[in-house]
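Section 3.1: Structural characterization of target chains.
Under the original work plan, the team committed to producing a structural model for every single-chain target entering the pipeline before any wet-lab resources were allocated. The record below documents one such target. The sequence was received from the expression subgroup and is listed exactly as submitted; it comprises 111 residues.
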Amino acid sequence: MSRQATKETPTASRVRVLAARVLWTVCVLAALVLALGALLIALDANRDNNLVTFVLDLADALDLGVFSMENGIKEWTEGENAETKNALFNWGLGAVAWLVLGRLLDRLVRP
């Protein structure tokens, strides 16, 4: 038996392209928040600032528990820079994971 290729309408194709762009953008923004959160911790930003607190809370939510600073892939517990190392390593890996996920979703959805 031969398989016939299904033709997609131009509207369906445009919708898929738009959905792929939205998915990629959301994943890039998630990666950016994680990277910015790690940078704020590395720079020892003022945590009394509402914007810093918002970014750190959002980054903590976007790490999905897998790349958490307290219970992440790698955890440093001793030393004066343990929190910075945890943030840069775990949230950095989390940012890379979001970018990989975004690229995979983009490739799957885009026609």
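The CA atoms of residues 71 and 97 lie 17 Å apart.
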